[in-house]
Structure formats: C-alpha cells, structure tokens
TrEMBL record:
GO aspect biological process, one term: biotin biosynthetic process
Biological source species: Desulfovibrio porci
N6-(pyridoxal phosphate)lysine: modified positions: K497
Residue ranges of every copy of the Aminotransferase class I/classII large domain listed in the record: 299-638
Lineage: Bacteria, Pseudomonadati, Thermodesulfobacteriota, Desulfovibrionia, Desulfovibrionales
Keywords recorded for this protein, A-Z: Acyltransferase, ATP-binding, Biotin biosynthesis, Ligase, Magnesium, Nucleotide-binding, Pyridoxal phosphate, Transferase
Protein known as: 8-amino-7-ketopelargonate synthase
Pfam family, one: BioW
EC number(s) stated in the UniProt entry for this protein: 2.3.1.47
Gene: bioF
Family named by the database record: Belongs to the class-II pyridoxal-phosphate-dependent aminotransferase family. BioF subfamily.
C-alpha cells in the first residue's frame, strides 16, 4: 500500500532572500491527505514567528514497504531552575554522550539557529560537515507510526521532535543531537542519543526568544558521511511506540498523555524538592578525579573528592589494578562464600588488619555495606546502640535494620553519652561514631569514648571512612592520632576515599570476623569485589605506608587553605581534610556552589538530609596534591562568593 509524505514549508521574503518560518511533515494514508494539508496550511498561517509570504506543500507517494520502522528513543524530562541550569544539564549530557567539548557545541547553537536545517559537526574537531552550509542538513521523510489520522493534523511539538530525534539517533555515525526550539512560545530543548535516549530539558532559553538551533554530532570516517546524509534526508522512517510526553509540570510542557499518569507523584515530589532548593543534580565528570578535572566541558579545580591522597589516578595503583583485571577478569562471578573468593581478597585483609592494629579484617563491597553488615550482626532486638546524632547515614541504616533500641546522644558530647550509657549499664550494647564526621570534619574524642565503653561494658566502634589516610602521622586513623595503643573493638573503613579505590572493610578480633562471614547479610548476599579494585587498594595501601609524607602534605594543605579562608573573614577550621563552610540557607548554598563552578571550582553544596535543615553548607575537601597557588586562588574566590550570597536577602 502507498503512504504519502506531506511536507509544508513556510517562509518570509527578506531583502536578500527568504527566511524560514515553519516546516512540518507527516506520512499518512491517502484518505488523510486533504485534512492534513488544510491543517498544515493553517498552522503556517498562524505561526508565532509571523505570517509567511510563501507556503509550499509537497505531497509525495512513499511505498509502505520502503519505510524503515524504528523504535522511539526512551524519553525523560529534566527540570531546571533557569536556562543557565538547562544549558549546564545539556552540556553534561553531551559529555556523557562522548562529546569532547560540549561548551563549544553550545556556543555554536546560536549560529546553527540561522540555518534552515541542522548544523552537522564532527564531534571531535567541530568542523562543519554540511554540504550546503547555508541550508544545513534537514531531517525529513519521517513520522510516528501510530499517529491517529485526527492527531496527524494537529500541532504537537513533542511528537514531531521525538520522531526527528529517533530517526537521527539511528542514523549511521551520529553520536548525539542537541536542539533548542526556535519557537518563541517554547523554552524547552533536548539532547538525544541512542544511549541517553531523548532527554527533554525544561528551560534552555528565555520565554519569547527566537533563538534556537539544532546540531547533529558526527563521529566516523568522512567516506561514510554520504550514507549518513542520505539516511537523515531521504530514508522514509516510521517511528514506533512513541512514549507519552514526560511532564515538567512547567507551563510549556506540551500535550499531556492520555489517562492517569502512574508516575505523577514522583514529578510532584521532585518539584517540591526543587522549590526547597533540595533537588540534586549529578555532574558528569569526564576525567580521573583530580586535582583538576574535566567536568561538564570545563576544567575545574576539584574540592569535592574524597581521594585525599591523589591515589585514584596514581600510575602504580592503576597498573596493579590493570594487571589484576587482566589476570582475573572484570567481575568476581559470585559471593565470596560461593564462587567469588580470590587470594587477593585474603591478601588485602591480611594487610588491612595490622594497619588498623586489629587481628583480622573482612572486605565488603562498600563502606555502606560494611556498616550495615557489622551493626546488624552485633546488635539485635533487646540490645541498645548509642549513636551520635550526626552519624553517617550508613550507620543510621545499620542501626535501624538491627532493630535494637537506638539511643541518640548529642553530637560529640561525651557527657551526654556517658549519662545515657549509665542508664543502660548491664545491657548488651554498642557505642558507634564516625571517626571524622563526613560533613563537618570534626574528630571523635576517642580516648573518652573508649573509657565510657569500657566502664559500662559496651562494645565500641568507629567508622574511619574519612580518617584512614588522613589522621595520625602515618594515616592509620584516630587511634594513631590520639597515640592510643588499643584500637576500638570494631573499626570500619572504606577503600573508596583516601585509598582511591572502592570497597569497604571491618577490622576487629578474629572471632568477630569469623562470625561476620557467617552472618553479615551484606557480605553473604552480594557478589564479591572484583579483582581490580582490590589490587588497586593493595597498591594504595603500600604507597601510603611507604610515603607517609603524603599524609603530612595533606595536613599542611588543609591548614594553609583554612588560614587563607580565615584571612578573608570566613570561619574555616578542620581537624581532618574536610572543610565545612556553613551558609545556612539551602538555596544560597546551591547558588554559591554554582557560581564557584562557573568560576572553575568544583565543591559541593551539602543540604538536608545530609545535614540538618538550615545548616546547608559548602563542603570543601583538600587533597595532598593540591598546588598551593590553586588553594590560595580557590580560597580567594570562595571568600568572594560567600560574601556575595550572604549579602543577597
Ligand atoms: C563515605 C562514607 C561511608 C560509605 O563508604 P562507601 O565505601 O562510599 O560506601 C561510610 N561512612 C562514612 C562516615 C562515610 O563518609
């Protein structure tokens, strides 16, 4: 059977030619052609960009058998506060799609808006590849496969954009597409690729703006360019299963899906978070974690990583991981108890235990799982856990899962702890705390905590996620810092911070470790760490032991950075490598972080629920490999940004 491609183009006469106003096309059955033509003409006549001087309609028969049927891209929507944030999101998506310099692509969008079609760029060199540079490349010969005849006449930006994006994403050698609507009634745009899907962005320009544009990014041999152009411009395509439009709840979201939306409650939840300045957004990093990184297309100084000693990107660490990867493969294949155990796991445990002055150690997949595993093993119904009010979420989750009674004591207040411990003396219980608070950077008063635990017969546990590699002359942690001969009963740590790898561990006596292997559910029911991160951590631990000067440098850098901040009038102090810069208001903290990012500094805004409401802050983490001049410059900019946001009411 024949289908008909119906194309409409409307343009305006200008002094030196024609200016494009509007275009649309559909592929429909013969009977739907007249109605569609009438609707398209009326659409051309009533366009927001003004009355056309020319309206062309072209009707062309297309054999149904010649139509390629393609699946629609999966679709999702990203909300944002303003066009600047929308553009940042777009840059992040382009980076994830593999585009080397997303900012440069964004800069070319305005120029692309002058073309009738899309700009076609080499994704790496950004060389323009359109055969006709004034016209651009026009994606045509396409429609949704299931558009009802009645629908086909109407105007549906979302539907048309989905069809185009789905076709283009499936064109050979097309890496990604970015588009901002040039319609003054719309502020939306999207980034699309086969991997990302169609990601609609709520705001990419200001309302009423005629700016817009479309860029296709090409990565492939020049010899194959002709095939790509032929596919985009001439191959008839019907796009199947177009999903309902995702809503931002913004005024410009187009046609709502039919029927009740089962996911609407999530949109509402996200909107509430946005309104309170609590919506999170993940920045796409395009390089190893520091000290300078490529992030969303820009080079920034990283003050947000926990890779304190710069070991994540250390050549020796990477080489040892690569060897292990080659020898043992990418995945471990199973839980340690079934199939996944490697000699490397045992070796790392044998190294970690003495490092923490313990008899034995057990690896977990993450520090989070280590905390949950050990707390739920040690405590159960009828027991009592004394937990600092600012303890890390993984400790809190472990406490909750254990079903023990949880007694929360005031932050760092050993008198309060002792008073509460006295009330529960004689019961089986655990006193647990972060050794270094992850959001404030302050230290456990370990000698006092151990004294209280001993006096009332409770187990003691500290989580050294931010202490390992940071505290003590050789980075062994809080016990070394305080010059204690004895460690707490249980020490939890992570391989993912100063050790530059990933994974978690528990250190304690041999009985505890043996028991954990038989009882900790987060150990038993999870696939073992693969060889590469274990080998990386082994090497990192070796380096830490051989090069304690890294720990010293970290301490000196932190002291220097805090001193510079204080000279600028910002209260900055840290006993670890975490420097909290309290802002208070959630939105102000986010604004400050955003401004600093634009100025080339990446530090995170920390908000509820990571910290209490109204205690939002910037959190800077210092590294051993930060250069002094970088830290001085960072402090100067932070001082400026903090003064600025605090002045805004
Ligand atoms: C980061 C962190 C954890 C979790 O460690 P992961 O290995 O990242 O899961 C646990 N506790 C504290 C205090 C942390 O800061």
């Amino acid at each position: 059977m024949n289908l008909f491609s119906v194309k409409m183009r409307a343009s305006r006469r200008t002094r030196d030619g024609e200016e494009h106003i509007s275009g649309a096309e559909r592929i429909v059955r013969a009977g739907d052609v007249p109605g569609l033509v009438s609707a398209l003409v009326s659409r051309a006549q009533n366009h927001g960009k003004g009355r056309p001087d020319f309206t062309n309609i072209k009707i062309e028969a297309v054999p149904e058998s010649a139509c390629l049927r393609l699946p629609a891209l999966p679709v999702r929507a990203l909300d944002c506060a303003d066009p600047a944030e929308g553009l940042r999101l777009a840059a992040g998506l382009l980076a994830r799609a593999g585009v080397a310099d997303p900012q440069a692509v964004l800069a070319l969008l305005r120029e692309a808006g002058g073309l009738r079609g899309a700009m076609l760029l080499d994704a790496d060199s950004l060389e323009r590849l359109e055969p006709d540079k004034r016209r651009g490349v026009r994606a045509t010969c396409m429609d949704g496969a299931e558009v009802a005849a009645a629908d086909a006449a109407g105007k549906n930006h979302y539907q048309e954009a989905m069809v185009l994006a789905s076709k283009v994403a499936h064109a050979p050698n097309i890496l990604a597409e970015i588009c901002i609507s040039d319609d003054p009634d719309y502020v939306t745009g999207y980034v699309a690729s086969r991997e990302l899907g169609y990601v609609r962005i709520a705001q990419m320009k200001t309302p009423g703006s005629l700016e817009g544009g479309r860029i296709f990014l090409y990565r492939g041999p020049r010899a194959e360019l002709a095939a790509t152009l032929d596919f985009i411009e001439r191959r008839p395509v019907l796009v199947e299963n177009i999903p309902a439009a995702p809503g931002f709840g913004a005024p410009n979201a187009s046609s709502a899906p039919a029927g009740p939306d089962k996911w609407a409650f999530l949109d509402e939840g996200l909107e509430r978070l946005s309104a309170g300045g609590l919506r999170r957004n993940i920045r796409a990093m395009g390089s190893a974690p520091g000290p300078r990184v490529r992030c969303e297309g820009r080079d920034v100084l990283l003050l947000a990583s926990n890779d304190y000693l710069g070991l994540a990107d250390d050549a020796r660490v990477k080489a040892r991981a690569a060897e292990a990867l080659a020898a043992y493969g990418a995945g471990s294949g199973g839980s340690r108890l079934t199939t996944g155990a490697l000699e490397l796991h045992d070796e790392l445990e044998r190294r970690l235990a003495p490092f923490k002055h313990a008899e034995a150690a057990l690896l977990f997949n993450t520090g989070y799982m280590a905390n949950v595993g050990v707390i739920t093993t040690l405590c159960g119904k009828g027991d009592v856990i004394f937990s600092d009010e600012l303890n890390h979420a993984s400790i809190i989750d472990g406490c909750r899962q254990s079903r023990a009674e949880i007694v929360v004591y005031r932050h760092n207040d050993m008198e309060d702890l002792e008073a509460r411990a006295r009330l529960h003396a004689g019961r089986r219980g655990l006193i647990v705390r972060d050794a270094v608070f992850s959001m404030d950077g302050d230290l456990v008063p370990l000698p006092e905590l151990l004294r209280i635990a001993d006096r009332y017969g409770f187990l003691s546990m500290i989580d050294e996620a931010h202490a390992t590699g940071v505290l003590g002359a050789t980075g062994r942690g809080a016990a070394e810092h305080f010059g204690l001969a004895a460690a707490p009963d249980v020490t939890v740590g992570t391989l993912s911070k100063a050790l530059g790898s990933e994974g978690g561990f528990v250190c304690g006596n041999a009985r505890l470790i043996e028991y954990l292997k038989n009882s900790a559910r987060s150990f038993i029911f999870s696939t073992a760490l693969s060889a590469a991160p274990v080998a990386a951590a082994l090497e990192a631990l070796d380096i830490l032991c051989r090069e304690p000067e890294r720990v010293r440098r970290l301490r000196e850098n932190t002291a220097f950075f805090c001193a510079r901040l204080r000279e600028g009038g910002v209260a900055a102090r840290s006993a670890s490598a975490i420097v909290p810069l309290i802002v208070g208001d959630e939105k102000k903290a986010v604004d400050a972080a955003r401004e600093l990012f634009d100025a080339g500094l990446y530090l995170s805004a920390i908000r509820y629920p990571s910290v209490p409401r109204g205690a939002a802050r910037l959190r800077a983490t210092v590294r051993a490999d930060h250069a002094g001049e970088d830290l001085a410059e960072a402090a100067r900019r932070i001082v400026l940004a903090l003064h600025q946001v605090q002045e805004k009411s």
